[in-house]
Amino acid sequence: MAIRTILRYPDPVLLTSCEPVGDDLEGIEELVRDMADTMFAHNGAGLAAIQIGVTKRLFIVDPVVAGREEDDPPMVFIDPEIVQLGRETEVSEEGCLSFPGVYVPIKRPYRARARARDLRGQVFEIEGEGLFARAMQHETEHLDGRLLTDHVGRIKRQMIKRKMEREAEEATL
Ligand code: ZN
């Protein structure tokens, strides 16, 4: 078990556009294990590799959020893309493990369909609604360096930035 450090906003790595994983899946299983340990340790709904400093196009989603059983492993999305978004939208408070304690209301399509590859390299498509659809959209945005702060206005963005910087300062005292 290896719980890795989660990068926090405004760490510039979080703004990176990630590289495709491609066909070479060596080391990916181990990376996913660490990501799962880290996500479960922080009660996250999902986690992108970039959040632990690995700038590859890969994320995981909590099994329950993905409609599976609690004991199931997280759902793994390698080189994912959102292929379809529903027209119906929903506003919901959204958090992110890179912004502890920050929640912002974000309007997103209620349904989303993603295409990705699993740990064996098999392509799959999956459709989700509600929190699952939201998680797939949120995590896919991480892979292009997009964050919660891209969904809020300038003033709110400044407030979030100050809050995060203040906490980082307090943590180093
Ligand atoms: Zn996030």
Bound molecules: zinc ion
What integer is the average pLDDT?
96
Helix content: 25-40%
Beta fraction: 25-35%
Instruction: Work out the radius of gyration.
Output: 16 Å
Order of adjacent strands in the largest pleated sheet: 1-2-3-6-7
Which oligomeric form is depicted?
Answer: single chain
Q: Provide the number of structural domains.
A: 1
Number of helices: 3
Helices and strands in order:
Elements: H1 28-41, E1 46-48, E2 58-61, E3 75-85, E4 89-94, E5 104-109, E6 111-117, E7 123-129, H2 131-142, H3 154-172
Antiparallel strand pairs: 1-2, 2-3, 3-6, 4-5, 6-7
Bound molecules: zinc ion.
Could you explain the architecture of this structure?
This protein is α+β, with helices and mostly antiparallel strands. The protein has a single domain, classed as Alpha-Beta Complex (Peptide Deformylase), CATH 3.90.45. It is 26% helix and 25% strand. The protein is globular and about 45 Å long. The protein starts with 27 loop residues before the first helix and ends with a helix. The structure holds zinc ion.
